[in-house]
Amino acid sequence: MLAAVFSSLLLSTDDLSRNELAGICFGVFGTTLIANPTSQTLVTADIRGVGLVFLAAEAFALGAVLTKRYRTSIPVQSMQAWMMLIGTVILHATSAGLHEESLGTVVWSPVALAALGYLSVVATGVGYLIYFTLLDRIGPVQINLIGYVAPVFAAVNGWILLHEQITVSVLFGFLAIIVGFSLVKYDEIREEIQTL
To answer: Residue 175's domain spans which residues?
Structure first.
């Protein structure tokens, strides 16, 4: 939703159609159904953490729009490498400034090394390369719709790995997200059906 707002303000070519706006709203609604916030969780939640997560989402959405707006001729791979390097320096400097952490306190178990390797190579290296390549091709609003799929995978993985229940509200959330995607991609879906 934030990417759509920033995009409509900062990119002249990214005006949202009614279908796209309705689809984004269905996606937000579906994600809310899956998250299933209760009055108790809303009251007991640490507002600082919620605020920081919101700021992170806002920064990510704004970053995608600004990357598209100020795109240079630098290749996607080089742009990603520079962003990762600068981001790493900022994160480590912030971590060192906020906490008394050191690498000496890390327990280097095989599981920790495997997790670090996966996060570094697959999730970050490959994932962001795909993300920025698609950002160039389809734009910030379309690429940030992938965020609506994350709760679906989280719920399914929770069911498979942690034996969590998939409730009726979660199923309705899945349905709302599918409807949202269908509305956003309505023109493309219609063209594909017509070519069949």
So the answer is: 2-72+111-195
Q: Does some domain include residue 115?
A: yes
Could you count the other beta carbons within 10 Å of the beta carbon of residue 169? 12
Could you tell me the two tokens for 16?
């949202």
- At 93-141, the pLDDT tens digits run 887 777 666 667 778 899 889 988 998 888 888 887 888 788 778 777 7
- Angle between helix axes 186-195 and 168-184 (nearest 10 degrees) is 70
CB contact set of 20 (below 8 Å; sequence gap of 6+): 4, 141, 183, 184
**pLDDT attached to residue 1:** 67
Sole residue written with tokens 């910030």: 140
How many folded domains does the chain comprise? 1
Buried-state track 2-41, b at ≥16 Cβ within 10 A, e below 16: bbbbbbeeebeebebeeebebbbebbbbbbebbeeeeeee
Q: Domain for residue 78, yes or no? A: no
Q: Report the first-to-last Cα separation within the chain, whole angstroms.
A: 32
Q: Which of 56-60, 105-109, 143-147, 179-183 has the lowest mean pLDDT?
A: 143-147
CA dist 92 → 43, 73, 96, 171, 186 (Å): 32, 29, 6, 40, 43
| Residue at 56 is within a domain | yes
> Is residue 164 assigned to a domain?
yes
